[in-house]
Amino acid sequence: MKRLSGFAIFAAVCLLLPVIFPDNYYVTVVGLTIFVNVTLAVSLNLLMGYAGQISLGHAAFFGLGAYSSAILTIKYGLNPWLAMIFGAALVLCLSYVLSRPILRLKGHYLAMATLGLGIIVHIFFVQADELTGGPDGISGLPTLSLFGVPIDSDIKWYFVLCSYMLLSVLFSLNIADSRAGRALSAVHGSEIAAQMMGIDTAKVKSYIFVFSALMATIAGSLFAHQQDFVSPESFSFFFSIELVTMVVLGGLGSTFGAVMGAFILSILPEVLIVFEDFEVLIFGLILMVIMIFLPEGLFVSLKNRAAIMLSKRESGS
Amino acid sequence: MTLLKVKNLEKQFGGLKAISDLSFSVPENIIFSIIGPNGAGKTTLFNLLTSIYKPSTGSIFFKDKEITGLPPFKIARLGMSRTFQNLQVFLNMSTIENVMVGCHLRSKAGLLASAIRLPSVIREEKEVRRMAEEALHFCGLSEYKDRPAAGLPYGLLKKLEVARSLASRPKLLLMDEPAAGLNDTETRELCQLIKRICESGITVLLVEHNMTLVMEISQRVLVLNYGRLLAEGPPEQIQKNPDVIAAYLGE
Prior knowledge:
Radius of gyration of chain B: 19 Å
Number of strands of chain B: 10
Largest interface: A-B, 29 and 38 residues
Strand order of the largest sheet of chain A: 1-4
Largest sheet of chain B: 6 strands, mixed
Shape of chain B: globular
Mean pLDDT of chain B: 93
Structural class of chain B: alpha/beta
Number of domains of chain A: 1
Radius of gyration of chain A: 20 Å
CATH class of the largest domain in chain B: Alpha Beta
Number of helices of chain A: 14
Helix content of chain A: over 70%
Low-confidence stretches of chain B: none
Order of helices and strands of chain B: EEEHEEHEHHHHEHEHEEHH
Oligomer: heterodimer
Number of domains of chain B: 2
Distance between the termini of chain A: 28 Å
Largest sheet of chain A: 2 strands, antiparallel
Mean pLDDT of chain A: 92
Order of helices and strands of chain A: HHHHHHEEEHHHHEHHHH
């Protein structure tokens, strides 16, 4: 199983961290945010990195999952898992219906359309206050329980969110290295050639759009239960942009690139707090420096450099 | 038996008739070449046959089935494949992955099955790899299989496009100027490759400017001039045809 050895190490580290540092703020509190962001970045990378279709509205699907869970459990008293499934079904239908016309667009036009989608959904969260609670949001979600065990502490949430994140990473790695993943890369590489190889490019794009949206939706439901609160600002246009930045920062088209990008973008603000007023300034500066010197993204560039160094060492000896 | 039949095909771009009233048939298991001066409409014809362009009027039949206006991927499913004059290699993949995309039609794992990586997917993946290696071997690319396609020289990229198409096991292969930009040795290799492709039971439709190559390997040649059929027949006849000579050399 050489193929998944990287994943095995990654999973082991993630699962062991809270055992080694049980009361560390960065592990059990910041860790939860990181896992949600990693899941979202990995799902967006499937669409953006592999299939080459940009989305500036990914936060919309994340938000739809969160709001579905909040509304259905609180206002309609649905079981949290059932609410999650309803939310996913809603997003499945919505994203499928939207995918065909939207993904017919390319480049800047696709960016505009997905941007519009994100903004419309956000406006809905803010304006439909009878349903969504408006700008104040909704609080007081019921506790999620798994096999009769209530998930009511940071450490339990750590393992739930970590498992879901690992599952999404595993799915992404599997897809990348499969017939479906090659079809995505082919669409990215040359749509005409992909069609000539018998690939229904419209279908491939639409399926990955839906798949990626579903991954984000379920992350949204889990996030809502973990936070015990939903409000529109978590799902704004800015968060969509942040997700795109995570994917690009780590390296487009690499699952672990998305993981690394999400990790860095989530942890940097926490670390930079010591600079107080200069926090945002230094944050921006770090991003610029990384992109100027490692334009293919942090993970991908470092991996390529390591590969070059290894091959040099081999040919040298 | 007739594999491909074109009837009264016409394509108009604004005021320009790129193809006008073109009819011809391609029998099975031969190398059929299309020649003509630059701008004669050869690549346009290929784009019409593979539905990248929709014809203004006329119809195209492949294996006795009308394919006019079908989307390109459906035409590919019927067994037609092509290479491109301006390369369309997937530069974001390795050599073998490019060819594995060619195996798309011969495998069936879907998105969900791939995500979960069912045992059937693992089995199929091995089979796809084997088929791709076979196609790479056929085109003499085995030693480059794990290289990123973006790093291959031009001549090998052209071969890679052929290997990718062959991996889909087409009945008809359209090759758009495969010899353009190749040196003499590479052209001779290409000549052998095209012959072997035809011997393996694939009909080849060739657009090419290299006359020596065309006359050596084709069983039939069609000459296009200003989008019209100028002549069609065996290469010996075409070489002697006064209209063809006039079109190429001027009067």
